[in-house]
Write a structure and sequence with these properties.
This protein is 38% helix and 16% strand. It has 76 residues and is α+β, with helices and mostly antiparallel strands. Strand 1, helix 1 and strand 2 form a beta-alpha-beta unit. The radius of gyration is 14 Å and the shape is globular. It comes from Jejubacter calystegiae.
Length: 76
């Protein structure tokens, strides 16, 4: 039961664009993990650039750097 939590700088995404993104994420997970669509949940969370370090880098990225499959090309 994958849960995908995407945090990103604010974008003016329409509901249709959000749904298209979710559909694409499902397609990739289905291809690689044979995930059922009914098992997938996707969260899209906008984070202001000035809040990135406090809300994303410090609590999520930095503590997981050693285990991240794709590491960021930046540091804070």
């Amino acid at each position: 039961m994958p849960h995908v939590d995407i945090k990103y700088f604010p974008r003016d995404l329409s509901e249709e664009q959000k749904q298209a993104l979710s559909d694409d994420i499902y397609a990739v997970l289905n291809k690689h993990l044979q995930t059922k669509e009914s098992s997938l949940s996707v969260a899209l969370t906008e984070v202001a650039p000035e809040a990135w370090k406090e809300q994303v880098w410090d609590p999520i990225i930095q503590p997981s750097l050693e285990t991240l499959v794709k590491k960021p090309g930046y540091s804070m």
